[in-house]
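DATA SHEET
Item: assembly model
Revision: 1
Owner: S.N.
Input lines:
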Amino acid sequence: MAHTRDADAAVAALFSAHRLHLVRLALLLVDDRETAEDVVQDAFAALHRRWGSIAEPAAAVGYLRTSVVNGSRSVLRRRRTARAYTWPDIDRQPGDGADAGVLVTEEHREVLRALRTLPSRQREVIVLRYWADLPEAQISAMLGISVGAVKSSASRGRDALAAILGGAR
Amino acid sequence: MNSVDDRIRAALHAAVDGLQEQDLRPADPPTGFADRRRPVRWIAPLLAAAAVVVAAAVTVAITSSPSAHGPGPAGNPSSGRSAPSSGSVTSTPAPPLGGDEPLWPFATLGEADHWKNVDAANGHSPWHADAKATALFFAQNYLQFHDITKVTSTDIRGARADIGVGYDLPSGAPHTASVIHLVLFGDDSGPWEVTGASAEGFSITQPAYGKRVSSPMTVAGRITGSDESITVAVRTIDGSVDTLDPLPAGGDNAPWSRTVAFSEHGVLTMVASTGGHLTAHERFAVVGVEADG
């Protein structure tokens, strides 16, 4: 069917162009690579199924990003309800590998550990603002919350991190 | 220079920017013919034919029961499943469940869509639209935990729901044995699908939710309690089940572990339950995994 062929080709192109970036985003939200890859794969599967309702290809990246954030939140929700969930070792983050281009220092780990203590919404906003460099309006649209809520989440998240990091000094 | 902002930004980039394509597991983009969650469904037509017979009988029982709050209908483990009346199981790609596994009552989005577009329009199995009824029927009819008799809590937020199920203690106070997690399958007008369950002080930590597994598999977790008796079962949506004998356990957040062998593949429902003081299933947890064929 033409629709299926169109969707296959378009989603394949997006997969090639954006999979790595989306896995990085998911990794910042769920902390382990396998889960991050699963979340991203699910996002692409959802995009493929709904390709016919995507208004324009340019909107697909936003759809994917939102799907990844929502999928990651679902993972975190399950972990919270699993009382004895063991968080992945922060020292084994992918950027810490011997062949990694960026060195993860103890200070970075300190920040990442503090990030894990934030509520999901604050963590998402912090990641989207500080790592993805998205404007508040775009974060607002992605998360389905007001710009004011984005600002307050960012402010509270940053303050909480500052307090934790300051206390760790 | 704002040190906090810079530290946050630097840490986030350092954490993931070293990740490269070659670090990722090989994966293909989804296509119209791909179904990652259910790689092998060769048995589906046979099961679907059988399910039609079961569903025809069970639909009568289900539709005649209270829609939400009363005890679920009597029936076999797979009695709540809605099979397409055409007798075929579709191969619709896995639905957008946000990373959750579709455990019960629908195996595929095609089945859920069939209920929404055909069965619901004909007044069949209206309980699929009721998160509380779906949660209770999951425990009573799919898991066969007949000592679970009531809904104890309700938390519905848009397309997601957490429904507590349990029973009344001798004192009359309700006891929550587990909180069933559900998601609307497909879209906001879709039926409720069970994706997992969690219990206070009793968990499955291995295998991780949604992981690919193979037999034999170690199932492990944590438990808080004394004189507990843990039973582990592996279920498929079609009713196949492998069960281990009860394991004595107890302690304060104490680890427990079992090894289970199974022959099924596709999406599996891992169920761990504990009890023996008042009832057989005082607490239970459920995770979904994917077994290689």
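QC remark: The helical segments of chain A are 2-30, 33-49, 57-81, 106-116, 120-130, 136-143, 147-168.
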